[in-house]
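Forwarding the complex inputs:
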Amino acid sequence: MSWLVGQASRLYGVRWVTLPPLVGLGVFALIAGALVVAPRESVEGEVQRVFYIHFPSALTAYGALFVVFLASIALLWTKDMRWDAIARAAAGVGVLFTAFTLATGAIWGRPIWGVYWTWDARLTSTLILLLLYGGYLLARSLADPTDEQAARYGAVFAIFAFADIPVINMSVRWWRTLHPQPMVVGSDGPAMPIDMVAVLVIGLIGVGLLATWLIVLRAEAELLGVRTQALRARLDRRIGA
Amino acid sequence: MTATWAVLAKDLRLLWRQRTGWVSAGAFAAMTVITFSFAFDLATADVRPLLPGVLWVTFLFAGVIASSHSFSEEQEQGTFDALLLAPAPRTALYAGKALANLVGLLSIELFVLLLGSVLFNVPLLVPRLILVTFVGTVGYVSVATLLSTLGAVRSRAVLLPVLTLPLLVPLLIAAVRASGEALSGNPDGAPWLLLLGVFSFWSAVGAALLFPLVVEQ
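Prediction (whole assembly, two chains):
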């Protein structure tokens, strides 16, 4: 366990050297793969290429929201405010990629379904996710970042929201459905050509790295903000005294 | 248990003495129903397909207004800190608060159902619809009471519904569908009342467990 923590912190120590070039490489590979390498889809045509960003964005958004959930539990457990900074950073990135998923979905939906938006089960539950975590960000931004009570309130909300996701998905699915059935992992292997799957895997890695980098950047910015505020408060007290 | 009863009795006494808050929530609910009847022309032959939606939107909006009182008053008067100092489990305090809100909101809903029965000429006070209303309100109140601990934050009046309503989408869908079943008598094809019951039960348990963490000083 301690070995794992040591490795993780060593990896985190070199983040400025490793993450930016890896992210650049991953995103470049994603763009090249989606635009050049992947074959033209025979039925849907060129617009299908948006899928290589759409699907990784959706998975990455879920991943980021899972980070919010874990960081919120850690905050309530340890009362260490650094977890709150991570939760807020991950929530911001999660909301960003949820919005990205909806936007790329709309771009694809217009030529294929004939509409940008429809009240299909997955679209609706993704929209609710956006509203949930948008509300979380709004609530946290209205309170002082150093306010521990507000941080705990946000954490409890985030835990509740994450636990709500399966129920939302189920209730909305019973409500209605139109989204294409899962293509990637069927019961008898992937239902698409191997080079498409390869591009998709590259997309997952690229978008995942990008999200990780964004979360790290945001969390550090939040932490610096909290520290600056504390220093300023101390300075004010000294001048006042 | 005694702590729960004490908080419940205190809040019910307050609810009675400061009737204005709850009466205005009830008036708001009545106004919402009447506004809907103008907006959707509910004086048509068959209002049953529309009524469940009208009722639950009214319940949710009235509930947000009503439940936001339960902690804002305490925080304004500074009595919440005193309440937290009491040698009682926090979960018991939460249960008392939630039960008081439940009583308040159920009275408003009863009033709305009565009003709706008269206005739309549909018997709304039928056992099945009352059961759906009760189960849904338990889930709603348990979430709303937890989230209304939101402290003296700027624009809390707007923030509370923005946070509460997306969490309650499953409850709203299930409650509207189950109410529709109750009114039309035709099963809808999905076990909505079961979903509503499970959601309400887990919300109540989750909120009771998380409440002590929110109010910790």
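Residues 14 and 115 of chain B are 26 Å apart (CA to CA).
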